[in-house]
Design brief:
Layout: E1 3-11, H1 16-32, E2 38-42, E3 52-59, H2 62-77, E4 82-88, E5 91-95, H3 101-111
Antiparallel strand pairs: 1-3, 1-4, 2-3, 4-5
Length: 118
C-alpha cells in the first residue's frame, strides 16, 4: 500500500518566501534523484490567511523511501539551521542533523509499511 510523505522545510525565523524557496530547492534535489514530489500549500491551524509550502512524496516501495532518506540527509548537510519535518499518516519526525540517516531511514521504512529493504 502506498503512503504519502508530507515534507515541510523551515529555517529559523525565515519568512514564508524563504520557506517557499527552501521547499523548491529540496524539490529540485529530490527530482534529481528521480523522486517525484508535488509542491502544495498547507494551511496550518490558526493561520487562515497564511499558507505554507510543503512537498508530497509518494512511497510505493522501499527503494523510494531509502532514496528519500538519502536525499534529505544530503540536502541538509549543506544547510545548517534548516529543519525538515516529514509526516506520514500522522506520525512526524523532525530532522536538522544529517547524521541521523539510519534513524530516519528506519522510520521512513516502518511508516511506509516496509519493515525492511527488499
Amino acid at each position: 500500500m502506498a503512503r504519502i510523505a508530507v515534507i515541510e522545510v523551515t529555517d529559523g525565523d525565515a519568512d514564508l518566501f524563504r520557506k517557499d524557496e527552501l521547499t523548491r530547492l529540496l524539490r529540485r534535489a529530490l527530482s534529481e534523484r528521480g523522486l517525484p514530489a508535488d509542491f502544495v500549500s498547507l494551511m496550518p491551524p490558526g493561520t487562515p490567511s497564511m499558507a505554507t509550502a510543503a512537498l508530497l512524496v509518494p512511497l510505493f516501495e522501499p527503494r523510494p523511501a531509502t532514496a528519500l532518506a538519502e536525499a534529505v540527509r544530503a540536502w541538509l548537510a549543506g544547510r545548517p539551521g534548516t529543519l525538515v519535518t516529514v509526516t506520514i499518516d500522522g506520525d512526524t519526525i523532525e530532522l536538522a542533523d544529517p547524521v541521523r540517516k539510519h534513524e530516519f531511514t528506519t522510520w521512513l521504512l516502518r511508516r511506509s509499511g516496509f519493515d525492511e529493504l527488499s
